[in-house]
Amino acid sequence: MLKRLQYTLLAAVVAQPLCAQAFSPEDHLAWLKANQSAQPQFAEGDTITFDKADLVRPFIPAEQQTTVLFEGMDMKIKDAGDMSPADSYKAATEKFKGQATIAADGAIENYTSGRPFDPEAFQPGSKDDGWKAVWKWTFRWQNAGLKVDEVHWVWVRAGGEHSGHDVMKADGGKYKDYYTGGGSFERVLAGPYQRVIMSHRADLTDTDYKMDGGKGFAKDTNFREYTGFTSPFDIAGTAFLILRYDDPRKADDSWAYIPSLRRVRRISVEVKSDSLLGTDHTLEDFYGFNGRPMEHSWEYVGTARILAVARSRNTDTVYYGPNGWAPLDDWALRKTDVLRMTPQRSNHPYSTKFLYIDRESGECFYANAFDKAGEVWKVWQIQKAWTEDPQYAEGQKKWKGDKTPAGTRMASVQSINVVDLQNGRGTLVPTRGASFPLTTLKEAKRTHDVNYLTEGR
């Protein structure tokens, strides 16, 4: 009876737009505690409509519910099946099991490849296990890294409609079937993205798990990441390059090319937590968390069973709902590890952030960030597609993406969508044609060197 009362009170909070409510990290933890032992009252093949929404509320973080539960919702329940990583990653995990350690300052040490720590041993409330969990997240299976030739960054204001927006008419209307529902489009940015992972690569056993054996261009490097923009015209040519070092204590080297200045400039750690070109994302928010672990403190909160788009039935995310923020897709019940981040910098925009990370695939489904006053601010929903499904290869052909090798076994990012609950705007980031190509060192030198930022400008 008490648990039912707790749930009813929390449900009352999320029944109204959260931007009008004071919803704190403590409220989030209370929701989690009240629902951790909830038993699903739905089954494979069920379709959840709004009159049945209470059945799924215990399995969707409270802050997220106003964006995915609404009149007209159509949530199909479908098990995602086996989403374990590639055999090479499993082999590396077994080979190096028990070798990785955590230093007194939280840095990972003695790590080579594979999953560094077993989450089965994590204890709720543990700071030490918080560090283990974030390094497990950092070194999750990613093959050689994600590549997307055209990423959309769509600003969607709550209310209104967008049928007249240019993106709905672009290239013969090839995008219009993906942006259904409501919401006013304010701006659409576009451009390529690619992360090239250079060390701890489970697929590179012959070169000490590193590109080029960790020499030359790949020396001391964990990954290089390029984010570019080709439209609209006022930001075309803007690009960012991040170099993440193998040394967990060493700060990133990061650069930006600003066309109006016609020069490459180094960017500070603060810039990576600022709004990215006016969107609701930051460079640090990609994937759910894309920053350096050592710039934050971590706590392992516990586990939660969560409904998420873990294995999309579509080639690309189809958005629907009153504000066009929700994915129309299959939803699977997944066991997740809940991780809490607290920034160490006093000028970081977030006071804390929660991540919901799939136990099996290692990928993040949800994230919730709170402002400096301790009130909920932004929520992320991250949809996934499975690289071995035929619709994944179909999407690569459709959008002329690179080929992903068979057996990659990745829960690939299909879209990363953030909603600012305080200002009623979302930024949708579909990654159409996403792939995990085996990028060569020669290709990486051509596309991920700082000199590339100005190429052709």
Structure description:
The chain is an alpha+beta fold and 457 residues long. Helices cover 16% and strands 29% of the residues. The chain contains eight helices and 19 strands. The protein has helices at residues 2-14, 25-35, 65-68, 87-95, 127-138, 166-173, 390-398, 441-447, and strands at residues 47-48, 75-77, 101-102, 108-109, 147-157, 184-197, 221-228, 239-245, 253-258, 263-266, 296-308, 319-320, 326-327, 330-343, 352-358, 364-370, 376-386, 411-420, 425-430. The strands form three sheets. It has a 15-stranded mixed β-sheet that branches. The chain has a two-stranded antiparallel sheet with strand order 3-4. A hairpin with a 5-residue loop joins β3 and β4 (108-109). α1 (2-14) packs across α2 (25-35). The longest helix is centred in the first third of the chain and has 13 residues, at 2-14.
What are the SSEs and their pairings?
Layout: H1 2-14, H2 25-35, E1 47-48, H3 65-68, E2 75-77, H4 87-95, E3 101-102, E4 108-109, H5 127-138, E5 147-157, H6 166-173, E6 184-197, E7 221-228, E8 239-245, E9 253-258, E10 263-266, E11 296-308, E12 319-320, E13 326-327, E14 330-343, E15 352-358, E16 364-370, E17 376-386, H7 390-398, E18 411-420, E19 425-430, H8 441-447
Parallel strand pairs: 2-14
Antiparallel strand pairs: 1-2, 3-4, 5-6, 5-19, 6-7, 7-8, 8-9, 9-10, 11-14, 12-13, 14-15, 15-16, 16-17, 17-18, 18-19
Helix pairs in contact: 1-2
